[in-house]
Amino acid sequence: MKKTFVLVVLFVFPLVAYLFFASGVNNFGKLPVLTEKIPDVPAMGQEVSLDGKITILGFMGAKVDSMKGNAFNLNQKIYKRFGEFTDFQVVMVVPKGKEAQADALKEELGKLSNVDKWHFTFGEEEQIKAFFKQLKTNTDLDADLSTPYAFIIDKDRNLRGREDDEDEGLKYGFDTSSVAELNNKMEDDVKIILAEYRLALKKNNADRSK
Q1: Which of 67, 79, 94, 168 is the most exposed place for a label (fewest CB within 10 A)?
Q2: Which InterPro entries does the UniProt record give (predicted)?
Q3: Alpha-carbon span 30 to 16, nearest angstrom
Q4: Spatial contact of 141 and 147, defined as CB atoms under 8 Å apart
Q5: Adjacent-strand bridge partners of 159
């Protein structure tokens, strides 16, 4: 009897737990839409778009150098992990006139990883403010048009986030100054949205083969 109990604990329970969590991801693993149909980025002479991409969207502001640490955190903890996916990209909004600083930052990031899917788009101050307002988040841009928060935007330009985050409740963005938040929260949520699209693709392929 004792041996049977030990076998159940060692082999059966882990299998049941795996099946439970696997079914949970399939049935309940959709990342909530918090803002529908945000505008496309205010691209100025650059072919940058949110359409058809899973985008990590950020606002670096006029003091690009002061946001380097945030960019490196995002690059190391999120971009390097998911940058291999065809439909994944990082887009940073920067005020016009800061193109040289953005190019220099991208060059530095390029020493650590392939940065083909890191994009910078440039806009006037009022244009950036108006664009950020359309995200309808519970945070504001700083005076220099920056924010430490990065946002997950799906292929249909919907802002995804958390409705019941254990710390914040309604969570629109992820603090790129916190490695722990990127590791423990943003990474999980990017996994969820990627899995959501993979499952949808598999279902579409299965339906076509019928």
Answers
A1: 168
A2: Thioredoxin-like_sf
A3: 22
A4: yes
A5: 35, 153
